[in-house]
Amino acid sequence: MTAHLIFDEPDDRNRLDSMAQDIIGRPIDRSEGALKVSGRAVYAAEQATSLWSEQRTDCLFGILVRATVARGRVTSLDTADALAVSGVREVLQDPRLVRHPAQGMARKAPPQEVTDVACFGQPIALVVADSFEAAREAARLVRVDYETAAAELDPASAPSDLPEKKQSSQGDLDAAMRDASVSLDVTYRTPSMAAAAMEPHAALAWWEGDRVTLCGAYQMVSQNAEELADALGIAPEKVRVLSPYIGGGFGSKLGIAPEAVAAAVAAERLGRPVMVPLTRQQEFEIAHRRSETEQRVRLALDADGLLTGIGHEARVSNQPGETFSEPVQQATHYTYRGEHRSIRHEVARVNLTCAGSVRAPGEAVGVTVLELAMDELAEKAGIDPVELRLRNIPECDPESGKPFSSHMLAEALREGADRFGWTSRRQRGRQREGEWLIGCGMAAAVRVNFLHKARVRVALSAEGLTIESSMTDIGTGTYTILTQIAAEMLGIPPERVTTRLGDTDLPEGSGSGGSIGAASNGSATYLACEEIRRQLASRLGCAEEDLTLKDGRATCGNRSHDLAELIHEPLVAEGFFEPGKAMGRVRSSTWGAHFAEVAVNEVTGEVRVRSMLGVFAAGRILNEKTARSQCIGGMTFGLGMALMEEMVHDGRHGHVVSRDLANYHIPTNADVPRIEVHFLHERDAYGGTLQAKGIGELGICGAGAAVLNAIHDACGVRVRELPATPDKIL
Ligand code: MOS
């Protein structure tokens, strides 16, 4: 049985709040946590050496050969030395290897012209050998001749285009700026950033007849299977993708990547399973980057401290022909009031690492810069920064006029200010401790909220409960929250629930991207469980609503049965959740507020973040612990964005200079202070059957601005070119 819901109407029944067990929301530990910390969870690169399947004991290893020019064409490949290395089987040149990663949810392989090199580091061949070491050694010995072409390496001067759908304007912003009682016109720059997931990409592929299995680390396996099929020119049913454990994706694993195609092509050719891992250096060169941005923000304020105009112009970059561009202004459309609005979005065409979705694409850098500008405006207008934001919250989406599905920004700002002691700290003013100047800052957190279609199968038997979907868990807690939802709905203790994810042979889940996972797949799980409840109720001769399922017992009126007595063979149901017309009627977003205290050393320019506080609203929180962990992670990214993250391309040749974790700085434990996270109670009727929204990406949005605003409060310096390294503070 499939319970199919097309989500055309909001759901405000709130029935989960009156369920018997209170399992949803509880901060229970990750159900796969013990496997991960004990090394029993097998990650992508470990597949080749694990005893998971006998199939893989005869696995070959492939290493991608990288281009060493930024633009041109390969004219010849001298493979003699590479082939002379003991254990080397073949150097493969196949046009299908040359592709960069597909963008998330593309369902199609990237369209890149296969004979051209479009950036430094682009794969051009694959060396296959009996061992990883031999393949790596031989890959260095392949000599490549190129016919080079002039490359565009500077996003600031490269030719650009203006994608029509990303421009918008209403009213007359220039006039609003002229008439404003206080106005601000300021430009900020953020650098290229890497996803920098802990687990590098790796793919193992093998063929059985005309069907290929790809075992790797991917966020959206059902879409990824279609992308691989498209790249190989075979039917999607002929591809199975397995991604049971993923060591962080952050966008870099949204689409299939070069190692996936290479492994599949080589495995077919050599008739053996082939494992292709990326080195950490290749991770920076091949996995897509977040585009650098140049952002001009214009704000016009009237005498009452109300915004009359907002302008947000962004220049980002990507390779020629790519359709993705960092959606910097995504939340600018609706965060603050003002009838005169202008958005300009320009994409420079460069021969640098392909740009794509990285850790809250858009808002991570867009909200951060908007919130930096708001802090500057508050200072200029002499209005408290929290108060300025509170005054400018719109009643409905200021561009479309649509109502918000729910709106919690004011609550988050007030709650955060209260918990942080904002008013008294600001009144006390800047503090000094020896060489250290102490200051505090704040920013709003805003992130669009999406739902996606998702299918989940649930089976209830006398032994327990099984949940199955191709949905993934990228370290975010999917295994755990789906377990909690089904346990709650069917009255089974979470320990007796088995959840299987990350396999395209299972019903098609949404995948993990854009914070869609929890609400979408959670809704599908809910629907499947509701169907099983109906089946149980009909066996008991009562209405589903009157059925109480708790501790493995079904109770209806004065009758109570052990579930095992009622179930002779497993009850199986699929839930299919499809976003319908409901979401189109509203603007759906998640909300929050960041507060930070920093110490700035006036001698060295060093910044130490002393504390961070985030208050967030994202509908029903499904697990306090996994949700909190994601917010802490996002706020840590924000700290990194403010102080250290910077991917540097060499301006002469286009290679990535900071292409390892020693040179690409991300926060380590010693950099991260106590981070406090508080959730607001919220139920969003537009959040699927759970009234939940995505939380994975909210924590980063604006977090860096709170840190940078605190730096200004401490020492009076506005860093408008991120990150705020000591040289920019002094
Ligand atoms: Mo996310 S950047 O959509 O994985």
TrEMBL record:
Q: Which SUPFAM superfamilies match?
A: CO dehydrogenase molybdoprotein N-domain-like (SSF54665), Molybdenum cofactor-binding domain (SSF56003)
| Aldehyde oxidase/xanthine dehydrogenase a/b hammerhead domain sequence ranges | 38-150
* Any Pfam family hit: MoCoBD_1
Q: Region labeled Disordered — which residues?
A: 154-173
In its UniProt record, a GO molecular function of this protein is: iron ion binding
PANTHER family assigned to the protein according to its UniProt record, in alphabetical order: ALDEHYDE OXIDOREDUCTASE MOLYBDENUM-BINDING SUBUNIT PAOC, XANTHINE DEHYDROGENASE
Q: What is this protein called?
A: Xanthine dehydrogenase molybdenum binding subunit apoprotein
| Source organism (scientific name) | Cereibacter azotoformans
